[in-house]
Amino acid sequence: MSTDSISRSRLTTLTQRELATFADRHPGSKNAYANATHLFGRVPMTWMNKAAGNFPIYLDRASGNRITDVDGNEFVDFALGDTGAMAGHSPEPVVAAVTERLRSGLATMMPTEDAAVAGAELARRFGLPAWSFALTATDANRWAIRLLRAVTGRSKILVNSYCYHGSVDESLIVVGPDGRGVSREGNVGAPVDVTMTSRVAEFNDLAGLERELAYGDVAAVLMEPALTNIGIVLPEDGYLAGVRELTRRYGTYLIHDETHTFSAGPGGATAYWGLEPDVVTIGKAIGGGVPVGAYGLSAELAGTLSGRDDLDLVDMGGVGGTLAGNPVSMAATRATLSEVLTEAAFAGMIERATAFADGLVKIIEGYRLPWSVSRLGARVEYRFASPAPRNGTESARGADPELEDFLHVYLANRGVLLTPFHNMALMCPQTTLADVARHHEIFDAALNELV
Ligand code: PMP
């Protein structure tokens, strides 16, 4: 359990009070949810049932870092669509580019020149020369995995315990109590036992990684340069260089999933830490909120793949989708990268995130709570554990769903949104220091009542 100084009965009482307030403040959302009887789980996507207030808040409109719900409540949004809206909601250059495209053909199976511009910008930022597009980061990961299996003739993919790379079957493995890989709890419909397709190592554990790579059957390591989906777990000194050295030594390709670590800066963690992956996968934020995914290949890999006449990369190869690379996604990606998530925008976002993290640390220390705060560029997260967890398993152990839900509802009732599934706050170009201060004032008040 997280914190001795928190009384569980007090937490329950306060949560009941906050849930009642939440229901009072959101009659329209409550009603809409009750009426959505022909949606599986009453939501368009089952994840939307991850709602600390017992039902989801229904969107009316969003702009910049502000959301207005169907009841007219306004929120400062630090969730930002779990990174899908890191460029801010409906950024003007994206809206303009997409609006133009919406009127001029949506699904033609033809390339537009925007794609090449977006690819060139991704190449400049991430240092990998050959890019291809998907509609989600999940698909980018799936397709990268297929390509690397094909190139290596090896069957397995290695991931970090408690990683998240989308609903990629190979990634749903954790280190079990005896140190061996086991299926992640709750996984739905695995095609085969995950140990047949995957190996797993803890983040920050080079010895564990080497032990698994030594089997010689791992096509690729798929990892985030910092874990961001089980709290933020930052790499220790030398870890990422060690991963690169070991993967090269054992003939295993290295995929860095930058979908969330893009928060580190304009070229993601790749540029920020000077990394040399063979493949970068990414999605969400690069489309400014419009669905897109992408993967970038090294020159060596692109060359090898192009020379493989036995691989059908054009038709049945399973590395594409009908609507991938569509004109709207490409217009949105071009506009986001060239006009919204610029170097100047990142500088401001990171400045606000630094203020967010510093303020959190002060408040948490003031209440003598054994919690920790981690930041990766524009992304900040606190965990109910101190010191900060070193790997996914340690971080998972620090979870406290009741406490998390209480804080989320308390904040929502006072007009601030954090990311569901996390205690994560993300900054977009419009986030101000006043918004940060507003979060901190409410967070402080919550702890003052609780501790
Ligand atoms: N990779 C990472 C690191 C992610 O955090 C996520 C989603 N949270 C994904 C991939 C999958 O993204 P999507 O659901 O948009 O496919």
UniProtKB/TrEMBL annotation:
Cofactor: pyridoxal 5'-phosphate
Keyword list, A-Z: Aminotransferase, Pyridoxal phosphate, Transferase
A Pfam family this chain is assigned to: Aminotran_3
A molecular function GO annotation: transaminase activity
Family stated for the protein in its record: Belongs to the class-III pyridoxal-phosphate-dependent aminotransferase family.
Protein's UniProt name: Aminotransferase class III-fold pyridoxal phosphate-dependent enzyme
Native source organism of the sequence: Actinoplanes flavus
